Every structure is written in C-alpha cells, then in structure tokens.
C-alpha cells in the first residue's frame, strides 16, 4: 500500500483531523488509511476513497506514519500487535491522552519513533491547534511529514514532553469550554426573546473575531479587555458580577482538574 498516514481508530478526533486534511487538499484520500474495530466505519471510509485495513498488524506493516487514536483504556491491549508489525522507519503519532513517549519506549524499545500529540476537534474546520513533543529517536527529517500532515489543518506547536498534560486544558479540552459558554449565552438570549440561530451567529462570530484579534492585533488579552471595561458601562457590570460569583476561580480549578485527569489516564 502506498498510503502515507494510517490511523488506528476512527473516532471523533480522527474524523475531525481527516476531514480537515481532506479539505486542505494537501493529501488525497487514497494517501490515507484507517483501521477501526467497526466494519461499518471501515466501509464508510472506503466509500470516501480511503484504504481500510482489516487488522492493526496489516495497517502498521510498512507504514510511514501511524496515527494511534484509541483510548487510554485500550492502548495496552493493542501495543503488542503494533510492536510485532512495527518497522524501525515508522513514526508513531499518538493522540492517546496521558500516554508519554517513555511509555511507548518501554514497550517498543528506546529507538522507536514516537511523536506525542494533543489535537483539537477544530481541525475539522481547518483550524486545529496541535501541541506535540517527540521521543529522542525522532529526527527533524522524521518529523517533517508529521508536521506536514498536521499543519495541513491547523497550527503545530512543539512543546516539552513535561507539559503534555498541562497543555490539554489549553487546546485539547478548550473547545468544550467555549461550546458550553455558547450554550449558556444562547439559552439566556432565547429566554430574553431572541431567535436561537440569530443569537448563536452573533455570539460565535463575535468570539471568532475576538480570537482573531488576540492572534493578530498585537495586543494582549488584558489590553483588549480593558478597551471594553468602561467605568459605569455594561461590560464592567457583567465582569464584576462574574467576579462576584468566582468565574476566575472556577476556570482555574477546571484547568487543574483537566491536568490531573490526564495524569491519571497515563497511569491506567
């Protein structure tokens, strides 16, 4: 098979990444492949032009890049099958939460090429944010194709291995915070008399523009916020009320809980 990137598991995050990659045009569907335990899922991908393997061993054998996208509860049960088919040239791209590159090296050998990645569901829209760290055996040349794959549907930031759990609330889990906020805001808007779709468009577009300003205006979050914190104004009234109810503390505690859970998953 001439496929470049092969995925073990085709759940939500893989579907999001592959959709984003597909839209980018950087890879054709016949350059990508999947294995999933569900025959229905395999058939769905075949119909879209992907190669679908019938086993993990077949998928791993001779693969340039293997994207491992199973749960932490499952990874231990498949790692031996991966090992038996693994080539010294294959780069493993792991999006398994909590599993360190050291975990793979202990089971596959010190020379195994592993890139640990925390992805985001927003890759589906071509706006992913991938935090990665790599094992010592992964050279710049090895990483080049991994970076090409991920950057086709988002940005790639290489960070120290020691921060791979700390990054989860910053990118991996962060979309859920926004979606939850959107749900609350839109529900309140409907309660006040707005049409749901109108309220959602207004809020989502405003958040999209706000993110763009954070990235490209040259101003930090505090400066931008202060532009809206006018004395006696509506925004200040809202922020003061949120502060009264402990918004900052709530957010910080949620971030800590997210990191703690990532570490727990790494011990399964």
TrEMBL record:
Pyrroline-5-carboxylate reductase dimerisation domain residues: 161-265
Name the UniProt record assigns to this protein: Pyrroline-5-carboxylate reductase
Classification via NCBIfam families: proC
Location of this chain's protein in the cell: Cytoplasm
EC number: 1.5.1.2
Listed GO CC annotations: cytoplasm
A single BP term in Gene Ontology: L-proline biosynthetic process
Gene3D superfamilies listed in its UniProt record: NAD(P)-binding Rossmann-like Domain (3.40.50.720), ProC C-terminal domain-like (1.10.3730.10)
Enzyme class label: oxidoreductase
Key words of the record: Amino-acid biosynthesis, Cytoplasm, NADP, Oxidoreductase, Proline biosynthesis
Main location class: cytoplasm
Family according to the record: Belongs to the pyrroline-5-carboxylate reductase family.
Pathway linked to the protein: Amino-acid biosynthesis; L-proline biosynthesis; L-proline from L-glutamate 5-semialdehyde: step 1/1
Function noted in UniProt: Catalyzes the reduction of 1-pyrroline-5-carboxylate (PCA) to L-proline.
Catalytic reaction list: L-proline + NAD(+) = (S)-1-pyrroline-5-carboxylate + NADH + 2 H(+); L-proline + NADP(+) = (S)-1-pyrroline-5-carboxylate + NADPH + 2 H(+)
Binding site for NADP(+): 69-72
Species in which this protein is naturally found: Lactonifactor longoviformis DSM 17459
Residues annotated as domain Pyrroline-5-carboxylate reductase catalytic N-terminal: 7-98
Record-linked Pfam families: F420_oxidored (PF03807), P5CR_dimer (PF14748)
Gene Ontology molecular function: pyrroline-5-carboxylate reductase activity
């Amino acid at each position: 098979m001439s496929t470049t990137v092969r995925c073990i598991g085709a759940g939500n995050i893989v579907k999001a990444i592959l959709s984003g990659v597909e839209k980018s045009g950087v890879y054709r569907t016949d350059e990508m492949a999947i294995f999933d335990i569900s025959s229905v899922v395999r058939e769905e991908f075949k119909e879209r032009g992907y190669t679908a393997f019938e086993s993990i061993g077949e998928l791993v054998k001779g693969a340039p890049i293997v994207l491992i996208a199973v749960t932490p509860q499952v990874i231990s049960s498949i790692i031996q099958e991966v090992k038996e088919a693994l080539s010294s040239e294959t780069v493993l791209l792991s999006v398994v939460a909590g599993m360190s590159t050291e975990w793979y090296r202990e089971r596959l050998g010190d020379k195994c090429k592993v890139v640990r990645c925390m992805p985001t569901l927003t890759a589906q829209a071509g706006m992913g944010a991938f935090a990665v760290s790599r094992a010592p055996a992964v050279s710049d040349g090895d990483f080049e194709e991994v970076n090409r794959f991920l950057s086709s549907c988002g940005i790639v930031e290489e960070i120290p291995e020691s921060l791979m759990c700390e990054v989860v609330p910053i990118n991996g889990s962060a979309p859920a915070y926004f979606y939850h906020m959107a749900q609350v805001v839109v529900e309140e808007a409907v309660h006040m008399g707005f049409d749901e779709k109108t309220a959602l468009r207004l809020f989502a577009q405003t958040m999209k523009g706000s993110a763009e300003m954070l990235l490209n205006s040259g101003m930090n979050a505090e400066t931008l916020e202060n532009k809206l914190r006018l004395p006696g104004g509506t925004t200040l009234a809202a922020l003061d009320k949120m502060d009264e109810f402990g918004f900052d503390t709530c957010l910080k505690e949620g971030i800590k809980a997210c990191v703690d859970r990532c570490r727990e998953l790494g011990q399964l």
